[in-house]
Write a structure and sequence with these properties.
The structure is a homodimer. Chain A has 20 helices and 14 strands. Chain A is of the alpha/beta class. The longest helix of chain A has 20 residues. The two termini of chain A are 44 Å apart. At the A-B interface, strand 3, helix 1, helix 16 and helix 19 of A face strand 3, helix 1, helix 16 and helix 19 of B.
């Protein structure tokens, strides 16, 4: 990684610094994150003034972030502020103090800019093409309309979790009257926006801490098998259940809710209700969470060059390659394994009947199959699966990520077992993974010496199936080994295979 | 990694190529391993001749290994052969064929050299200081005596698993008469050696595939929580149980034994009995397995410079630093966290009463606490624990490795839970880890901005305990954050702590 950029986002509730290391046009990786709960919007009254305590907390956090950047080799800092500072009547006073005491010159994002960068971050990380993006912050909620991956328009309403909590969550647990007032205020926020009605057939995605937290609560309360929020979807019905649970609880009880961090326990109910009303008015049955938003959008503006807007033209392909590069994969060997596996896939279509989707996953798995060596050579198939499951792969559903991880897990040996991930997979996926892994395994052993001695192959569909290899040099060991690893193929396809 | 060395070891049963990447005097890492079961000693009769089939398999494997090295950027190849080639009456013919057909010039190790390199590999990876080292190969068994980490002497006997299996494991399952003959032959092998008797108070360690496999069977048949053979110990009683199980089984049944790979199923019984008789005659109650041996010894001869014999002077310290370097740890930040944690440890001695052992582990954990960032920033405490558990850390017991992993796991947040590893830990270790993790956590948050603003600290043992920091610059956030993370300290020590 040649460069390090520090992106600072000073919001109404929290402020974060993320440090991203990158090599331009090549690869990037999140290296550090520091989060402080500054509650900058706390106590803002009718006069719209930031209060002395919150301002002091904001200044101290900015000083700390700046010295963090200086100590950790950050070469460029991008510090931005959002609604709390944008709307403050004493904005100038605050910005001057921040410059003077921390040395950071905050760029105050307009509503449109904030929506745009959130959109850039989310669209570069999710498969979303047409739909809406929601971000519920401390001071406001932003909704952005997206069509064909393009930014259409956005609106911002002062429905933030700090503001709404102060106004409506005044008893503990919340009284029925306050709860009703909260719901009504949230609903009113969105009914006011004339164009936000026609959402049929589109998708809803969410960014920001409030929605991430709601996703974590959903996962933790139902024993979800992945520890991963990005790409997670939950239904309106599940959200309603979460709200029913939270509204009956005292603050102290909420602090014990799995997935809910202590410093959000007081704000989460307002956040959940704001989302509920948005889903109600927009008639969304489900929301998908993006772990990436504003901060990543500010990064992608620098990183994705030659595209306008700066969106990855092949997000999934880039993301797989980025992961492979981070772990120093062997490009030539991996590409040859991929080519052999895809050649088997194509020629065996009459047998499996799979489509482009499976083919794409098989190709990606081949590129990633050896990344676990970065952890340790022994058991590198298990380490590789761990890395895929815990990676920042973008543009894939959780089901796809689990399938990729299982293909990596079984590229060398073992019978496919996917029980652990039942909650994420479809019933037919165990067979699907077993079949694709069988192809990957034959391809891997045909590249045993990593020397590309097996250049290509031709499949003769008989019984047994014969794979005739095209060889340059001596492939005795490859062919012998590949024949020893056909057990999974035989189990998965119910047919013998012979490699010659 | 600047260099890549390929080490090839052509044995009687298997041959392996390991590729190790390294930066001289700095760090190293196993990058690749290829293993072929060539059974070179198969069918050797009274005339001591390698047979045509096995020779052909040996030559083909050497060709494959050589092209593997060429394709994967190996800059130097160290190819050696052991007992099968050493003892072959047609050795010259075989070596000539290998050179001509594969281009590799095998160095035939003498018994002494083989013992020496095995010793180098094992002693550089285990805590063993005085005792014996056993390696049971395909054609022979070598025993080396070690005193004060020094090589004293070794002997080699033709008690190899291929030879003994061919001679004694002739019925399926083995007949009682053959089993008895096998035991007697194994015993006779070792009683012949006059000096191998006085083993009292010393340790037995083992290297090579036979003993690794016996360790894996032990682990798999009792649900051991770690997937790690190096450093594993098992008792003579457990070995006897394993032998009782194996001797009643047919070959096909043995192939299904967890931990036993298919291509060792026919040889393992002979190997287990050879080890049993060695333990009987040497009166060893337990054996500790080294995952490193001959091949690693050949590597260390190059890597460890300035020491004679080439042994790490501080194996544990080097190994921790090697791991930290592989994952590009932040040296200055980690060292400061270590210094602060150790300063807390030292000044709180009246409270915990721990010794140098705990102090050493705490220091190592501090060096490793952030390595999980290499996998992903989010949950890097969990990733770091995974990396430690799956690392090649040398010179540590499994108990110590688990403790290091748990310290990394809990360096940021969470209440310590060690249930998963009960089988490896002592009952008091949960408290021990909680207390050490509490110190590490306070130190980590005093280094929140990674800027060394907290230079040192002084502990006042009162109620609450006061930690007075010595600060350069502004440590507002550090002190505020550290005070927020004292919950674990309070739980683990039963005392409040206040940082000022």
């Amino acid at each position: 990684m040649q460069e390090r950029v520090g992106i600072i986002d000073l919001g109404s509730n929290t402020t974060r610094l993320v440090v991203i290391g990158y090599t331009p046009h090549h690869s990037f990786k999140l290296l550090d994150e520091v989060r402080e709960t500054v509650r900058l919007a706390e106590g803002i009254g009718e006069d719209g003034q930031l209060q002395p305590g919150p301002m002091q907390r904001g200044v101290v956090a900015m000083k700390m972030f700046h010295s963090f950047c200086k100590s950790t080799g950050v070469t460029r800092i991008v510090p931005v502020a959002t609604s709390a500072v944008r709307d403050a009547t004493n904005q100038a006073e605050f910005l001057t103090r921040v410059v003077r005491e921390s040395g950071l010159k905050l760029r105050v994002l307009s509503t449109e800019e904030e929506g745009y960068y959130g959109y850039l971050g989310a669209i570069n990380a999710l498969g979303l093409s047409d739909g809406f993006l929601i971000d519920i912050g401390g001071g406001s909620a932003e909704v952005t309309a997206i069509r064909g991956r393009g930014f259409v328009r956005s609106f911002s309403r002062p429905a933030g979790v700090v503001r709404f909590s102060e106004r409506y969550v005044r008893s503990d647990p919340i009284s029925n009257r306050d709860f009703k007032a909260l719901q009504e205020a949230a609903a009113a926020t969105f009914t006011e926006v004339g164009w936000f009605r026609d959402t049929s057939g589109t998708t809803l995605a969410g960014i920001g801490g409030t929605i991430r937290t709601l996703a974590e609560i959903d996962q933790k309360t139902r024993g979800y098998p992945l520890d991963r929020v990005h790409g997670h979807s939950f239904s309106r019905a599940r959200l309603d259940e979460t709200i029913d649970m939270l509204r009956g609880m005292t603050l102290r009880q909420r602090e014990e809710v799995p997935g809910l961090s202590r410093d959000r326990a007081d704000l989460i109910l307002a956040g959940a209700v704001i989302l509920q009303q948005l889903m109600e008015i927009g008639r969304f049955a489900e929301i998908t969470v993006s772990g990436q938003g504003l901060r990543e959008g500010l990064f992608y503006e620098q990183f994705v060059v030659g595209e306008n807007p700066p969106l990855f033209s092949d997000m999934r392909g880039f993301s797989v390659q980025n992961l492979a590069r981070i772990y120093n994969y062997e490009a030539i060997h991996s590409a040859k394994v991929r080519d052999l596996a895809l050649s088997l896939f194509d020629q065996l279509r009459p047998l499996h009947g799979y489509n482009e989707w499976e083919r794409e996953l098989l190709g990606y798995a081949a590129m990633l199959h050896d990344i676990g060596v970065a952890v340790g050579y022994y058991d590198h198939h298990k380490h590789g699966a761990y890395l895929v499951i815990n990676s920042a792969l973008q543009g894939f559903s959780h089901r796809e990520i689990v399938m990729l991880a299982l293909l990596v897990r079984y590229h060398r040996k073992g019978d496919v077992s996917a029980d652990e991930y039942r909650a994420v997979l479809n019933p037919s996926d165990t067979e699907r993974v077993a079949r694709l892994a069988a192809l990957l395994r034959v391809a891997e052993y045909l590249e045993r010496s990593k020397s590309q001695v097996v250049q290509g192959l031709h499949v003769e569909l008989g019984d047994p199936i014969r794979v005739v290899t095209r060889v340059v040099g001596d492939a005795t060991v490859e062919i012998w080994d590949a024949n020893r690893r056909t057990g999974l193929f035989q189990k998965a396809f119910g047919k013998a295979i012979e490699i010659v």
